[in-house]
Amino acid sequence: MENIIINSTSKTPEVAFLAEARTMKLSGRSIPENSIDFFAPLIEWADGLCSIDGFVEVNIRLEYFNTSSSKCLMDLLKRIESSSVDACVNWFYEEEDEDMLEAGEDYDAIIDLPFKLIATETL
Amino acid sequence: MSDLNFSNRKTNPQSFMPQGDTVVVGYAGEFKPVTSDFLLGWLERLNAENSSLSRIKSKRIFRAAVELIQNLIHHSHSSNSTFLVSKSEDGKIYTLMSTNPVNTIQADKLASAINSIKDTDDEDLRGLKLNVLERESRSSHGGGGMGLLDLTLLSYGNISYEFLPWSEGLLLYCLTVQIHSIPS
Fold it and tell me: What is the pTM of this model?
């Protein structure tokens, strides 16, 4: 499997999906007008990785995301949840940012994967 | 149409600003992704330069702006759309407003959607949001009706709308969201 490395833009996050390390990282902001276009290849890649046995780590360090990204993020996490691999999600948020903490709690309530909510000084 | 808030005020967006407010960012015309880049970049720069604005409040203003502007990009194809951000004299309240023409069917749907969530408490709103996030389908651009829910949560229910007479078969939909200080 090829890695997916995408630099961040003013509307899309930095993506580091690494096949050998079996990690997926999204950081920055995710506010594209069409989130499906952005997330579709990432979800497809995650499906591929999750078809191979082994542990998968997901690291989400998002500063902002729009509501359409939130649905796509849900799709990504649901695909991992419904696969046979063991996985964990590390959800990083700025320590004073209750909105992003609540967003992490929302995903944790829906997705049946080990979820760590990690407060950091800066993202 | 009985639930709609009609008004006869002028359709100049500045007439919706609370008295004493100053304009932070304003734009009138057609909304395209490039318009969004410009407006959001501008708003973000101004917020960053405002040392009295907390980072968390600044993020809330930005998130509300993203939802309002993207709503205009997806649902309004009129050159008569507007987006305006103003702040109160003491800088504590930011008012974000969008206007765009809609037909009466859209107006009924919008009024019904906002009326159904406007007076819902935060906990129930979060429950509704979870439900939409988990179960409901979405539109072709990825949203799923979550924008209004998110705006209501971000503003602690300080969201309101009006419909002004516009032209034959159309009304001007004016959506206003106020971001106050975050309660401790």
Answer: 0.89
State the pLDDT at residue B168: 85
Q: Do the Cβ atoms of A67 and B62 come within 8 Å? A: no
Residues from chain A that touch B131, judged by Cβ atoms under 8 A, are none
Which of B17, B19, B89 lies closest to B52, judged by CA? Answer: B89
How far apart are the CA of B48 and the nearest CA of chain A, in angstroms? 15
Whether A12 contacts chain B with CB within 8 A: no
Residue whose C-alpha is closest to residue A112's, from A64, A74, A59: A74
> Which CATH number is B13-179's, of 1.10.443.10, 3.40.50.720, 3.30.565.10, 3.40.50.740?
3.30.565.10
Task: Return the CATH architecture of domain A4-120.
Answer: 2-Layer Sandwich (3.30)
**Would you give the DSSP letter of residue B155?**
T
pLDDT digits 0-9 by tens, B10-21:
566 677 788 889
Write the ipTM: 0.89
